[in-house]
Amino acid sequence: MPLHWEPSFRKFSTAQLNELENRILRTLREEGFTNVELYDRMDYELLNAGVRDINDPVQRANINLQLGIPYLLGLSLGDAGWTGEWKAISPEEPEMGSYWESDTRVSSMLRIALFETATGEIVSDYAVETTIDGIPIPVGDSESLSLNFGSIEQAVRLSVQKGIRNLVQDCSC
């Protein structure tokens, strides 16, 4: 069974998801993958072709026969988030604001799989982890403050780029 957009992708807005999908398809097209579609974008086409159960071999064959799509790409987002602690600059004066205490990190785990519609086989499968660490900024007396300007969306975009690069090198679809 191909992967699909997991509930963990709900951390992103619709605009962010659309941008991510467009980036994936654009990257695939630039690499010459013209016969691959995103599983998530195929709801209407699959129902129109009579495919209600992707695991049924007869229905799955219709994806290739009726729609001319030999490969579907599925994505699954695992753990994605940031770590670090906010500390008050001065507990007595909260209006002074706060800062990251230490060890700031943004990370994501993304699974990218290429699914062959004729056979039902996953022909390429990658789990890509991306970590964006904070940058230590010296604040004096050999102390430093770790700042991180990364975002979860940025970490997922980097994971997609790495995953697509590996998929392109691995597959001759």
UniProtKB/TrEMBL annotation:
It comes from the Bacteria. This is Curli production assembly/transport component CsgG. The lineage of its organism: Bacteria, Pseudomonadati, Bacteroidota, Cytophagia, Cytophagales.
